[in-house]
């Protein structure tokens, strides 16, 4: 049977050397269940050290987001959402209608090259004026009148996709600019305050209520549809995750006021010193030649910005050994980052016998005009190796977070999991885990079975996912589910539901504003 975990069958015309090279690569890129298990245990350990504030022993920052409380889909009201993270600024009016229903209107404003390097007050004035223009447009004003919030001031949730040290739901200091932005006057200052000052300067009746990371927005937006959402994850240009943690476990927080809080894991940085990740020479080459060598190695094995480049490195290796394209490359293929992750999706989608569509991609996108069917089979097999490894590592991070949630006593009770999968603070399946005689997957399987048998109310834990890799890469989800099954037992699909959640920076940011406003009311 050809399942998604079976590598492409070698064509009979493959030479012995080609078969040998591919079987070596398969060995290097295939993660066994035991390896995944080992990585999961380490991931959970690093989550715990991060929560304990032990920066030396953890590569996971585990940032408290000050977002406490999850939506149940009944929330109502109109909120503004703002998304700044690239060349476009998006302003949205989100109307939460209750009953899991949302209406949204949005407008994009281009952030010019000049503004990306102008003084921060100029950028913030531009944002304030864009908000003003958006809400004074007739269509939007009438919507606000239709669905008024309690006061005249519109509350706004701000998705700001740059590194920030958050100190409250509505305060965070910019640590550094990335992605081509470099506005003086911002680093070291509170982004919310800078925006609020510009809004006030421009006489716009808006209050910045919440500052959120895109993973948090994804989690919140998914919760509005599926109240059992526990994790938000991004598999796009980069990768990261956020989840709901019991505040008593967050040792880095001053006296907790709420029972739970969303944590931004910053999981792209897992195992940055490459102690346990099975990095190959192809990954190391990519890392060395990247703009941020030595960090985010996990992200570099998973996300859209990098998968194509890993594949390109492998193809060049095969060409140099005269095992592909008769030893001839092209100018395009020799160019850094020329092999897009999107091509891998297109290549893996080709299930025809002769793989002619792959020949077209090689020709049109990469300038490789001479290729045989064996060449195309090899290219496809390489994409499968890189793509499957990415999906299995994504499953690993997801399973680690789920296991942690299942293990913290009482934490998952609301999800129908009054399971005791841990002793004290020890999490199942880690070095200090409880039962050494069976794997964590077996143990979870047994416990979920027994809850089901005793009439327990097993509800799926929902994971909201955003990103083109998850959405468009063929078999990515299926391969993730395979990995999850190895790590969470054969009832994995009863435990975890993966789902696409695309409106983190709109609906998610609006919900963060709502949560912030409610919390502020309570504290008055
Ligand atoms: P972002 O993460 O920046 O918000 P996306 O979620 O759209 O944006 O992810 C963009 C990344 O996804 C890029 O790195 C791109 O290479 C990759 N990508 C785009 N289309 C596809 C596709 N069809 N298959 C796989 N990866 C894709
Ligand atoms: Mg995105």
From TrEMBL:
EC number: 2.7.1.-
PROSITE patterns: HEXOKINASE_1, HEXOKINASE_2
A GO CC term attached to the entry: mitochondrion
Pathway: Carbohydrate degradation; glycolysis; D-glyceraldehyde 3-phosphate and glycerone phosphate from D-glucose: step 1/4
Top-level EC class: transferase
Keywords in alphabetical order: ATP-binding, Glycolysis, Kinase, Nucleotide-binding, Transferase
InterPro entries the record matches: ATPase_NBD, Hexokinase, Hexokinase_BS, Hexokinase_C, Hexokinase_N
GO BP: any one term: glucose metabolic process
Domain Hexokinase N-terminal: 22-224
Domain Hexokinase C-terminal: 231-514
Pfam families the UniProt entry points to: Hexokinase_1 (PF00349), Hexokinase_2 (PF03727)
Molecular function, one GO term: D-glucose binding
Record-linked SUPFAM superfamilies: Actin-like ATPase domain
Protein family according to the UniProt entry: Belongs to the hexokinase family.
Name of the protein in question: Phosphotransferase
Gene: GLK1_3
